[in-house]
User: Fold this.
Amino acid sequence: MSGAADREPVFATRQSLGLMKSKLKGAQVGHDLLKRKSEALTKRFRDITRRIDEAKRKMGRVMQIAAFSLAEVSYAIGGAGIGYQIQESVKSAKLRVRTKQENVSGVFLPQFESFQTEGGSDFAMTGLGKGGQQVQRCRETYTRAVETLVELASLQTAFVILDEVIKVVNRRVNAIEHVIIPRTENTIKYINSELDELDREEFFRLKKVSGKKERAAAAEEVKRQAANKAGTDKENEIDEHSVERHDVLGDQDNEDVIF
Amino acid sequence: MALPQSAYKDRQFLAVIGDEDSVTGVLLAGVGHVTDPPDSQKNYLVVDPKTENSTIEATFDRFTKERKDIAILLINQHIADRIRHRVDAYNEAFPSLLEIPSKDHPYDPEKDSVMKRVRKLFGE
Assistant:
């Protein structure tokens, strides 16, 4: 009846039965809600996964074009290229990202957004001698490429966060479904059986008590009758009385009625 | 997992670990940033065949763990291959890690750590 089944450590009372019942109801509602949340997130997750797949392939092409434009620059400038010059003239980032939030079923997904800060480029002098146009074009190409990358990074961040959140939500759903609900049900069953047991015990005890009372009352009655009889029929002989006691008890009703 | 806004509010730079051409290109787009002296730190690392793996790992750790102002870390795929165990083990949301192709090494979706997870989820 108890012990083996997994249940909560409560006393079997009507109050805790009520508590358990409301808990079970709460758990079921929570389970439904979480399940729906998990489904919504999974849908979003699949969408993002597909877009990541596409964006990654697109990135491959974009970076290829960008690399080609850089090759054009090296060709135009000739010699060692501009790598060293550019790396040395870096001071402050012109292209930065800011983060926005997007709310998906209570989960905040950050989204990156690239923006240009004001002020001239650090590379205003790059390619001044020759290849200036190629450098400009290359810069634009790479800016576009970086924007694609930023977009992809947002998707990827959302992917990582959603992955984590979905795991947590599913864990909760499963915990409620397989642990909390069965345990609460077990507890309710246990409390019910205990209460029934108590009821039976109580009933049996009452019967016992009333039986005992009846017997005591009967004995009392006998005594009283005997005393009455002794009082009223003083002439009755003691020996006879003791012998016919049973008779007297059995015929008492008749005698009373006649009397 | 609701990330506090402070986890990414200040992140506004991109960082690059790559070969010379990739870094040059991305810097040309204007992502390069050098912090104020005295401890002027660059947000890029140029890797050539002579660069030690330990240097790459140290830079990777610095960009991903120490610096709190980097939102996106770009790394060339062939360099990511050199520290693959680190890249695969990395699964934080911020900074977000992107593997990009380089001029000499075309993009291979099979190797990308995120794409691996994507494919695993689709059960391929």
Summary: The two ends of chain A are 61 Å apart (CA to CA).
